[in-house]
Structures are given as structure tokens and as C-alpha cells.
Amino acid sequence: MADVYALEISLTHEGGHQHIYPVLIKDDQDTVLVDCGYPHFIIQLQEAAERYGCKLDAVNKMIVTHHDIDHMGCLAAFKRAYPHIEIIAHELEIPYISGLKKSLRLEQAESTLSQMPDEAKAHAEQFIAMLRSIEPAAVDKAVTHAERLPWCGGIEIIHTPGHMPGHISLYLSSSKTLIAGDVVVIEDGRLEIANPQYTLDMEEAVRSVRLLLEYDIDRLICYHGGLFEGNIREALGELIVRYASQKSIIEKELH
């Protein structure tokens, strides 16, 4: 069975302290890194990997869950530093990761700028500049839903759109581990939808959470929050019910 390590990285972002959790999957043949953090994060990744006795130059596969800056910010630099790695992403994400299309997050930020109050525009413009600075990287392998990658005992691709159209989560059946990416996050000890204000399609996001109930999960790792402690199936069900209730309330108010 492969070893799975959630690489806790602490950072200060937008005036607050937070943690992100790229994931390292490792066996005797392959070392797979899932997401790589913000720009200039190679040193932080290296330090986090070394806490588990791993070296970044052993990584030979990089799976990118989606093209947000905190997930692919240092991807191009990582590829330059370790040119042997193979980069993998969902087919819908490839145009954005490779720079063939403008980032959907950048489009979203640009489209809302004119509607913001003047006091918020300076911060929004800084965010837009940061998104524009993301360096694209070529993707070596496209994947689709239910595809099973043969590395580390088998890694199943779960297409979990909503946060982004091509967002993926990963399921390791050998250890019943679900690597969530941003399909769910942990806030105050419970599961939530990641950044609802940034989620491009909330209904899709909730359907993606519902899809996770089809998997036998003993261990759930969120990019924001790390390892979830608790009854996973119950927590996923509660999250679905919570959003269904919110939607019902909103629909009643509109009518």
C-alpha cells in the first residue's frame, strides 16, 4: 500500500494566517504530488516533504486538481526544477493551466471589479494582478472521470466540478483515501463548500459532494483544512442537506 502524506504548509495570505495541504503519495515505484501551492513555494514544499523523509526530486508525477493560484502557482517553476515530472490534469482544465485560455478565476475577478465600492477596488486590483502573473505550464496527460491511474496502487479520478469546471478529486481504493482538492474544505471542524463566493457553479458543487457518497471513504484530506476527523459519510450528508435547505429558503424569498 502506498504512503499518503498531507504536507501542511503555513502561510500568511490577505492579512490572515492559513494552512494548505498538498498531498504526497509514495510507493517503491512512484512519488506523486497533488497540487503545489502558490508561486515561489518550492522551498516550503521541500521542507514539508522532508518532515516525512521524502525528497522533491523523487516526485515523478504531479496531479493538478484545478487551475487556481494556490494549487498551481509554482507549477511551471517546479517543472523547470524537476523536468522529469509528468503533469496530469482533467481535460477541461488543460487550456487554463497551459495558458491557452484566460483563467476563469481572472475572468470572474475582472467582471466584478466595476461593481465594487471604491474602497475595495485596490485590493481587488492587487488580486487581479496576482492572477495575471501566474506562469502557465504544459500538461503532459489529460484525464477524465472514473479513469484509474496505475501508480501507487491505483488512483481513481473523480470529476468534481462546481468550484471549477474541470476540478478533480482523487480516490485511493487501497487505503480508502479521498483527496478532496477544493470540493470540500474544513471550517471550524465541519465540512463546507470551498469559498462559495468563488465557486463558479454552486449547484454543480453540491452535486459533486453528493457524488462522493458513492465512495467508501475512511480518510478524507482537504486542501484547506487537512485530515477530516469524524464520520465522513454523515458529514457529507449534512453538508448536502444544509445547502438544499439554503436553496429552498432563497427560492421561497424570490417567490
UniProtKB/TrEMBL annotation:
The protein's matches in Pfam families, at most eight in alphabetical order, are given as: Lactamase_B (PF00753)
Entry's InterPro entries? Metallo-B-lactamas, NDM-1-like, RibonucZ/Hydroxyglut_hydro
Which residue intervals define the domain Metallo-beta-lactamase in the entry?
19-224
Could you identify this protein by its name?
MBL fold metallo-hydrolase
Transmembrane ranges, per UniProt, are none
Which PANTHER family does this one have? METALLO-BETA-LACTAMASE DOMAIN-CONTAINING, METALLO-BETA-LACTAMASE SUPERFAMILY PROTEIN
Q: Which reaction does it catalyse?
A: 3',5'-cyclic UMP + H2O = UMP + H(+); 3',5'-cyclic CMP + H2O = CMP + H(+)
What's this protein's function? Answer: Counteracts the endogenous Pycsar antiviral defense system. Phosphodiesterase that enables metal-dependent hydrolysis of host cyclic nucleotide Pycsar defense signals such as cCMP and cUMP.
Q: Which SMART domains match?
A: Lactamase_B
Originating species: Paenibacillus chartarius
